[in-house]
Amino acid sequence: MAIDVGSMLSLASSLKAATDIAKTMIGLRDETLFQTKAAELVSLIMSANSSALAAQMEQSTLLQEKRALEEKLVKAENWQHEAKRYALREITPGAFVYALKQEMAEGEPFHTICANCYSDHRKTVLQRSDSVHDSCPHCKAQIRARDPQSRQRVGYYPAGSGGDGWMA
Ligand SMILES: [Zn+2]
């Protein structure tokens, strides 16, 4: 959103006009003229008041937008860190997942995350759904996984078998 300085400018010009009128009123002896100037003064003060309110609302909108952007930035930074911990792997022909890099494990066991969700900046750990498939609990993608025996033997895919899991 572009910063709207309109309210601040009209506030300043109302206050300037009100000051000028007040200065004029000091020297006035004519009762009618004094009343007229007093009415003008009141109207200017009311206008200044509404400009001040508008400026306050603009400021609060800007603050909200600033907070939202800060949250977005933190999320983007967190995602960037998470995204770097995984590498795209083809676990069976045509079936892709993002697999945790060993050097980026940070104490987590080896796992893979959903490639669909990854493209939406979401980390969803794939779960076994049956003996041949992993599935994504979020987008429900079904990934054809490797045979269960080799997974069991090494915790995941044996190195050198074409899979890219860590060595046991
Ligand atoms: Zn998914």
Chain-wise SSE layout:
Blueprint lengths: L5 H21 L4 H54 L1 E7 L2 E6 L11 E3 H5 L7 E2 L4 E3 L6 E3 L3 H7 L14
Antiparallel strand pairs: 1-2, 2-3, 4-5, 5-6
The structure holds zinc ion.
Descriptive overview:
It is a single chain. With 168 residues, the chain is of the alpha+beta class. The chain folds into two domains: 6-82; 85-154, no CATH class. It is 52% helix and 14% strand. It has four helices and six strands. Strand 1 and strand 2 form a beta hairpin. Helix 1 packs antiparallel against helix 2. The structure holds zinc ion.
Task: Offer a quick outline of the entry.
This protein is of the alpha+beta class and 168 residues long. 52% of the residues lie in helices and 14% in strands. Bound molecules: zinc ion (ZN).
What class do helices, strands and sheet pairing give?
Answer: alpha+beta
The stretches of 5 or more residues where confidence is low (pLDDT under 50) are 150-163
Give the distinct bound molecules: zinc ion
Average per-residue pLDDT, rounded, comes to 85
